[in-house]
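FAQ: What does the model actually see?

It sees only this:
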Amino acid sequence: MVRHLCRGSKVTADVYTRRLGSICTLRGTNPSELVTQGRKDEEWLCNFLMDLVSELERQGKAGSYIVSNLKAIKSWLSHNGVEFKRRIKVRGADDTPTLRGKHALTTGQLVTSLI
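And it is asked to produce this:
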């Protein structure tokens, strides 16, 4: 499954696989059921994803993390021939709280840290 989950790197595929498993555990389902239900009923799939977003927001997860989870699910669905085109809004989708106040190292700082 890992090799086919996304078209990007193996690292991305590994992350997406872990997220898909975590989401399925959280929501009491499995990847096969997501595909089966998604094929049968787009409204069910939309509700599933919106409920997931609401639950992750209640848990205080960052918007960027929630968006990444949605990408993992959509990648899995797409790989299995289920296209989901609806847009699901996520509060703070561009917010990366762990990077707030951080900056890129200057060349000098990079050289110093490597020495």
